[in-house]
Amino acid sequence: MELLLQTLINGVLAAGIYALVASGLALAVGVVGIVNFAHGEFTMLGAFIAYLLFVGSGLDPLVSLGLAALVLFLVGSLTYYGLIRPVLGAPELNQMLLTFGLSVALQNLALLLFGANTRVVSPPYQGSTIHLLGLSFGVVPFASFVLSVVLLGGLYWFLGRTRLGLAVRAVAQNRLAPGLLGIEKERIYLLAFGLSAALAGVAGVMLSVILYASPTVGFAYTLKAFAIIVMAGLGNLGGVVPAAVALALAEALVSTYLPGGGGWVEAVFFLVIFATLTWRSWRAA
Amino acid sequence: MIAAAILLLALLLPSLPLGEWRAFLLDTAQFAFLTSALALAWDLLARSGQLSLAHGAFFGLGAYAAALSAPALGTLPALLAGGLVAALASFLLGLATLRLHGMYFAIATLAFSEVMRTLVLKAQFTGGSIGLPVQPAFSGAFPLGSYYLAVAVLALSAGVSLLLSRGRWHYAMAATRQGEAVARVLGVPVVRVKLLTFGLSAFLGGLVGGVYAMKTLFLSPYDAFGLGRAVEALVVPIFGGLYTTSGPLLGGLIIVGLETWLRLRIGEGYLVIYGLVLILAILFLPRGLVGLFRKGVGRA
What we know:
The structure holds 2 protein chains of 2 kinds. By secondary structure, chain A is an all-alpha fold. Chain A has 11 helices and 2 strands; from the N terminus they run H-H-H-H-E-E-H-H-H-H-H-H-H. Chain A has one domain (2-218). In chain A, strand 1 (129-132) and strand 2 (135-138) form a beta hairpin. Chain A is globular and about 60 Å long. Chain A: This is High-affinity branched-chain amino acid transport system permease protein LivH.
């Protein structure tokens, strides 16, 4: 019973980061209409920013969180201007290949610069745990969960309550009408893509403490984020959180209860993608 | 023209006076042929409008199936078995994903290839993460055996690709790619076209994998099922020229040449070239290298 409870809690705590990364991807897919295979690489960049700041100037990851968000927002905007905007009108195949190329390039560039080693950001509180009602969990996962909830709350507030956020949603729903209302589509795209990258970057900073920074750390998150937004319905931001929780719980359960579960965790999100996609396609048929 | 020239060169290469670079050149050429063949297989599928990220998996399935069955069956039947296993896998995958379009199909194939790698890593008879030693082609009777096998696979892929760039089947694939609904209305059996193209493409991919296994004599899940394979398979045709035969042939030679040079110079991270080539080709060379020489010809 206690094991089950602990597993469930671990799952929920992991869901925070998943939801952050996946919300970013959902923004890119839903608003800009771009399937960004390089999304996880933005996460990887965030993780490396946190690592470099920590090693270089002893900056606490909590501080680098804001910096990483800013830098990644810029990176996202530049990516949009330089790479995405030219192919907005191109066939979907070209768009996917372009972001896939960006992903491969960023991954291997990081490999060239930093090598394949994993690097952990280890602030003094990294190992501390909280004990509550006979259960224990790490301070870091707990804090990152709380932060994720706060950030996601902020994102939903932005999208639901501010004029700019409503404009973003309007563009997601219809490509033509917002223009008639005086909303500049291109700027919304820019904002959405920048935000998308910033969310991924913030998640990366958290990963650098919980897991590690490495050139390939992001790619798994691209795939997990795909699994989540596919479950939620592509571009449907509202479904991201429950889908992230579902995926994280499934992974936690598999890793605890399946014999030799560690390796199979890697297969969970693919099975989720697979099952959802095929189920959807057959239901639609 | 280009295709014939490259194949002729491939056949003659071992008998040319290459001096001390001979072994290295032949090795590199052989990997380039295999890459080109895999790229041709990928391009076939792309002609029907499906972006596959699973060609690494077909390659790996073919490699493992050929390696495991070679001691019992002999070289050529084992290669065939590898191709068939890959084709069977693609058939099952195709049945499940037939109704998926565009990005959904790409994501599903990516998922498939990662699951396959996990399975091979976990299974016992594949050697798991330790890897699997492979018998050389024809039990090592001919030193150049695997080289000529690579040439043969390349010729086969190029032949199939040429054959399918004209005639009814070509138009059926192009119509399926450009507008599935319209193709259906025109009487194109879209489902059959997609499934058969997928199967054929995977079969060729599996063959390539088998020859690769008999060349490297050792397989590991990370190598054979790596995403790098899928990346190679799609970057080469895009760089060389999509939906053509000479494009992937030419692209394969150039890119593998670049890759080998880069690998010697910087080691890990040489895949960066694939990313950059992919980005640049999409942005500035949408019709590929071959497109530079063919002005005004439509892509259909």
